[in-house]
Amino acid sequence: MPEGPDRSSTDGSAAEEGTPEGPAPTPLLAPADGLPPVVADRDALRATAAAFAAGTGPIAVDAERASGFKYSQRAYLVQLRRAGAGTALVDPIPMGSDLSDLAPALTGPEWVLHAASQDLACLAETGLAPSRLFDTELAGRLAGLPRVGLGPMVENLLGLALEKGHGAADWSRRPLPQDWLVYAALDVEVLVELRDVLTALLDEQGKLDWAHQEFEAVRTAGPPTPRAEPWRRTSGIHKLRKPRQLAAVRALWEARDRLAAERDIAPGRVLPDAAIVDAAVTAPETAGALGGLPVFRGRSQRRLTAYWWSALAAAERLDAADLPRPTAPAEGPPPVARWADRDPDAAARLAAARAAVAAIGTERTVPVENLLQPDLLRRLCWTPPEDGDVAGFLRKGGAREWQIELLSPGLVTALAARA
């Protein structure tokens, strides 16, 4: 590889200043091999595929979306790095978000991602999926690290400071600014090195097999189950109790969602949640009155007054039987705050189970949420298996074998607790 630019600051002061805990991290200011040109056509993509097929070792992978700006979660930039191939910045948009030409070169080697569950879906939309996976964020959690963001982990484990500032940017913008591309390239610059350090740490702690089971669970996880009533997540809806108000929220939320999907704009940029709740509380009697409310009287919203009013009017015409319930339909156990009244023994089981899991988490230095999904623990304690097969219950609920082996004995004891 050609010699890259100096990764330290220009005057060296930051690296020399240090902290009470040790020397200050060395700023990582530019890719070691220089910033590569963006891959934006088929010929360049095929050349990239050939280079990565000839490379060696794991492949660092990252993707940039425009979550706060677009309705879709598509990838607007894909970053790759592999020993012998260097770094590639791939723009999927000019190629119709089809990067399948890369797939053969990326199939087989382990992919290294940070917070992989956030990127795997958008990468799959481009035709790319890993056959093996290493998730550095998840590895950090299992290793008991106090901070598992990419920046803090690179700083604490590698002594390097990553550039910050563009993670929440609108990556659908074209052309992409030079400093954004540098930021994107640096996100995969040291991922493989970080993976190697974490692998050694997990192996030393006896957790490497745990990590491999967790990575495989992330890799093979299907799409999340859609919420039955997603409109109930509207911010501020807790202020509303009347079914007619909730119907208004539902109607405006669904109208906004349709428009946001059609225009590929983040829903909150089409109409803020606060405006939806305000309209439901105010209950305007005419389109003109709706257009006089804050937000709705803005210039961009005035053109949509008839659209929003149509949704509200339809909600107002609903029969009482078609109005939403004041609370969401129950899915699984009731809220934990009600357990003591509804089933004191279940509350006692949950308290004992939580204590058992917390003790193991402290002993093994693993966050309790990574030891077992909280919802699965609640379901176990609310309705224990009649045959007493705790291990089978956990396995059916998606727990990994290492979790089952570690937790089952303590949970069996906890399920015997009584109020």
Automatic annotation (TrEMBL):
Q: Name one GO biological process term.
A: nucleobase-containing compound metabolic process
Q: Name one GO molecular function term.
A: nucleic acid binding
Q: Report the InterPro entries cross-referenced here.
A: 3'-5'_exonuclease_dom (IPR002562), Exo_C (IPR041605), HRDC-like_sf (IPR010997), HRDC_dom (IPR002121), HRDC_dom_sf (IPR044876), RNase_D-like (IPR051086), RNaseH-like_sf (IPR012337), RNaseH_sf (IPR036397)
Q: Give one Pfam hit by family name.
A: DNA_pol_A_exoN
Give start and end of each HRDC domain: 242-322
What ranges does the record give for the region Disordered, renumbered to this chain? 1-35
In terms of PANTHER family, this protein maps to: RIBONUCLEASE D
Kindly provide the name given to this protein in its UniProt entry.
Ribonuclease D
Species of the source: Pseudonocardia petroleophila
